[in-house]
Amino acid sequence: xxxxxxxxxxxxxxxxxxxxxxxxxxxxxxxxxxxxxxxxxxxxxxxxxxxxxxxxxxxxxxxxxxxxxxxxxxxxxxxxxxxxxxxxxxxxxxxxxxxxxxxxxxxxxxxxxxxxxxxxxxxxxxxxxxxxxxxxxxxxxxxxxxxxxxxxxxxxxxxxxxxxxxxxxxxxxxxxxxxxxxxxxxxxxxxxxxxxxxxxxxxxxxxxxxxxxxxxxxxxxxxxxxxxxxxxxxxxxxxxxxxxxxxxxxxxxxxxxxxxxxxxxxxxxxxxxxxxxxxxxxxxxxxxxxxxxxxxxxxxxxxxxxxxxxxxxxxxxxxxxxx
Length: 323
Description:
Blueprint: H1 3-23, H2 28-42, H3 48-63, H4 69-73, H5 77-86, H6 93-113, H7 118-164, H8 169-179, H9 183-196, H10 201-212, H11 215-230, H12 234-258, H13 260-283, H14 285-288, H15 295-318
Helix pairs in contact: 1-6, 1-7, 3-11, 6-7, 7-8, 7-12, 8-9, 9-10, 10-11, 11-12
């Protein structure tokens, strides 16, 4: 058997083994720790610890300091289940693994049909299998969070009107879950359900905050927790929070408008090499055919893609602003 075939089979087996190990089963120790933390929060004497923990999570989410790139691309089963739940879809980890394997087989098969080297086809298929499903899930999460943040100030205004009319907080949550469709209604419905089964309001809100991972909802949870601890006019506090969130959204739109020219230039410059390559290849395939089977040209092409990726990353960080 040819050495390239052995390498591609070994690479595919190694990738499948890594996925099985990383997503193969829940950790008993982490499950016990998580359950003990939930019980501790549920029976806490005060909300000071909950507020402090929520503040730390808000600061961490705003700073964007997560795990490493490798751990984010290949998370543990618990983290992957959490990511899939954040999409709002009824997807499972098994379906995610099957989609990754199908992507690997499809991309590798297409590259082999156009007579690409076995090793190159296997590596590209492996990268696609690890990256493409992850990118799709991340895009769905981003879309859902964007929809939530767009309607969340309206939900707070509805809460304020309910509180001013004399309704308790839990009843206003119920009104929001019924009146506002989409992610906002779903999250508040989940909060109501967790309160009904015995969780405290702080624990129920904190679980939704961890699921969404947005500073906006974490600010809301901190506001509720502080008001329940110290007292005060909750309707006025939530009204101020709604105004702050709307100004925050307006500032994001201003930054997007100011950076749109730089983004358009980056898109044009980044797409130009691929566009020229496609035009030349369609007119004279023999001229560029060496990029698919000659080792030196393959290494040169991969190096160029690597440098372009570094440039795109630097430009994306230059136009990224924290609010």
